[in-house]
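Help needed: design a sequence for this.
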């Protein structure tokens, strides 16, 4: 497949690019500076400057963008709006590297992980910003999007086990009571979804088995 990865220089973007290239896909990095990922092609452009022509012809676009500072947190929603505008009515799939804070605590889907009393205060602004982005994807009925939330412990330094469990909108833990996934195993799951399809206009989650 032809896969474009927005923010391919980030830790998640690099892991996804490496996994996709190793499986034989044609990967294009969308980056503002020199490409540091395994992607074979490069679109050197700010994500907010992307046009419909830039993304035409890709089977999958991966949004691996992340913002962490107060002034950039609204960019999660800005980019969600921009990408859904560009891809509306096309066959291109949009896979979004999401956050865990917007996962629901139980099947009633009334409270989210970020609402729990013990949710780390430092991560709350990011969780709320990413949740606002998810709301925009949910409204994009003309886009084939899938929002993939990682486990609560999303480990950039973790090893590749090659095993994971997919779940839905409700926060889950494994048999050891842990909500954990490494970036590299998250990348395995995301590329599997890119290859197999499914989960159209759905938010799903992934954690280590």
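Sure. Designed sequence:
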């Amino acid at each position: 497949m032809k896969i474009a990865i927005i923010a391919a220089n980030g830790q998640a973007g690099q892991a996804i690019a490496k996994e996709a290239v190793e499986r034989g896909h044609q990967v294009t990095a969308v980056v503002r500076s020199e490409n540091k990922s395994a992607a074979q092609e490069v679109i050197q452009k700010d994500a907010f400057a992307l046009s419909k022509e830039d993304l035409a012809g890709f089977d999958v676009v991966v949004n691996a963008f992340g913002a962490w500072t107060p002034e950039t947190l609204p960019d999660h929603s800005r980019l969600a709006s921009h990408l859904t505008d560009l891809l509306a009515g096309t066959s291109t799939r949009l896979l979004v590297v999401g956050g865990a804070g917007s996962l629901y605590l139980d099947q009633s889907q009334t409270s989210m992980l970020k609402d729990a009393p013990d949710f780390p205060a430092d991560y709350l602004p990011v969780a709320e910003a990413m949740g606002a982005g998810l709301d925009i994807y949910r409204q994009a009925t003309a886009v084939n999007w899938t929002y993939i939330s990682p486990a609560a412990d999303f480990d950039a330094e973790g090893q590749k086990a090659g095993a994971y469990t997919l779940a839905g909108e409700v926060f889950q833990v494994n048999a050891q009571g842990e909500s954990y996934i490494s970036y590299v195993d998250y990348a395995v799951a995301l590329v599997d979804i890119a290859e197999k399809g499914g989960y159209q206009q759905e938010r799903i989650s992934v954690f280590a088995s």
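The first helix runs from residue 11 to 22.
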